[in-house]
Amino acid sequence: MKTLGMIGGIGPESTIDYYKNIIALYRERQRDGSYPQFVINSIDLKKGIDFMNANNLAGMANYLLEEIIKLPRAGVDVGIIAANTPHIVFDDIASSKRPAPRRKFAVSKSSPSSARNSQCNQISTRKYSSAKEST
Hints:
By secondary structure, the chain is an alpha/beta fold. It has a single domain (4-133), classed as Rossmann fold (3-Layer(aba) Sandwich). It is built from 6 helices and 4 strands, in the order E-H-E-H-H-H-E-H-E-H. Strands 2-1-3-4 form a 4-stranded parallel sheet, with helices on both faces. Helix 5 links the parallel strand 3 (78-81) and strand 4. The longest helix is centred in the first third of the chain and has 18 residues, at 12-29. Mean pLDDT is 77; it is low at 115-135.
C-alpha cells in the first residue's frame, strides 16, 4: 500500500475534511477493516497567512516546497495540499528546479469533495526531494 502525505494545518478544517473523506472512500473500497497509511505535516497557518497578506507568493511557494520535501523523507509516496489558498502558488511549486527524490513522489491539487467522489482535480505533479536525497 502506498503512503499518502498531506500538507495540512494551513486550513485545519480542510485538513480534517480531507482526512475524513479519504478514509471513508478507502473504507468503502476496502471492506477488510483496514485504514490507509497517512503522514500529515501540519504546518504553521500564521506563517502562510503572513506570506499571503504581504502578497509574497514566492515566499509562500518556498515555504510550501520546504514542507513538501519533508514528506518523502517520512516514507510518503504521494501527497496532497489540504487547503485551497496555497494552490495559488501550485504552478510555482510544480515548476521548481529542486532535484528529484530517489523514489517517485507527486503532489496533486484536489478538493475534499473530489476525493470523496473519486475525481481528483489534478493540475500537475512533480518529483520533490531535499538536497540530501539527490545523488
